Structures are given as C-alpha cells and as structure tokens.
C-alpha cells in the first residue's frame, strides 16, 4: 500500500472540495479524527497493517461530505473504493476500510477492534477539554441545516446524545470517560 501517497491525495481533495459552510465536518475534523485514531491504535497495540488501514479509514471517513451530508458514510466508502486501488490497496484492504468507515455511522455498531477505534476516534472530542469550541462548529452546522433552532434545542440534543453514547475501547474509556461526564454536567447546567 502506498499509504503516504493516498494520504496526500485525500487531504488535498478534502481541502479543495469540502463545502466551506461545513463548520464541524471539515478538514480539521478529519485531522482530529486521524490523530485520535493514531493515539488509540498505539494504546490498543494493533498491528502495523491494521494501523495503516485504520488511518486510511480515518482520512476517508467523512469524504462523502464532498457529495453531501445524506448517507455520507456510504459515499465515503464509494470514494475509497474509487481511489484507493490506484495506491495498491487490495479488495481485503478496501473491505476492512469500508467496515471502519461504516462503524462511524450513528448509531455506532463496530464489529471488531479497528472499527471500535475509529468509532471512538470520531467522537473523541466528547471527552476532551476542547469539547465546547468543537461542538460549537457542529451547532452551527445543525442550525444552518435546520436540525436545531436555538441553543436550547442544541443542548437538549447533546444531553440525549451523551446519555446514549459510550466509548468502545478500554483506552478511550480510560482516557475520555471522566472528562465526558464533566462536559455532560456543564451542558445540563445550561438547561
């Protein structure tokens, strides 16, 4: 696999083609998920091959937003299928990558450790100190698309989301659960 060339390709494509109105599902989100996936893969001690596939999936996981928000995970899989064979990814690699991408679809239903890692990496920010500035970007996206009408709607939606979310990997649970609980209390205090 020509991982570094595939990485350069998709990062350039995302930078050029993601719609500028995306304030959460943006280029920076992809880099954030990539970094979180890298950290979790090291903590979970997966093989170097699995890590390369995982990091590829992290880079492609929201590329479907280039086409639109509806079924963006499936579109991301199609983009991966269209471009990764040119970088020597084989059919087994593609199937693993597509499984990881689909594991980020809500509700998250990962079937193996790499899928669990990407699912956790995608929502890593829930249990971090930078949660509120990142979530503001998602609020702006949801406001623009009519998912929420105001901060009260948004905070209710976040409380419900937090209460139904759990991290899958032991590493994410150990490193993110406490701060996630603190962030939830801060959101609840706004209601």
Could you explain how this protein is built, in words?
It is built from nine helices and no strands. It has helices at 3-17, 27-44, 48-60, 72-83, 91-102, 113-122, 131-145, 151-164, 170-188. The longest helix is centred in the last third of the chain and has 19 residues, at 170-188. It is globular.
Mind sketching the topology for me?
Elements: H1 3-17, H2 27-44, H3 48-60, H4 72-83, H5 91-102, H6 113-122, H7 131-145, H8 151-164, H9 170-188
Helix pairs in contact: 1-3, 2-3, 2-6, 3-5, 3-6, 4-5, 5-6, 8-9
* Uncertain stretches: none
Q: What best-fitting shape do the alpha-carbon axes yield?
A: globular
β-strand percent reads: under 5%
Task: Tell me the series of helices and strands, N- to C-terminal.
Answer: HHHHHHHHH
| Percent helix range | 55-70%
Radius of gyration: 16 Å
Largest sheet: none
> Mean pLDDT, nearest integer?
97
Structural class designation: mainly alpha
Summed up, the helix count is: 9
Distance between the termini: 49 Å
How many distinct beta strands?
Answer: 0
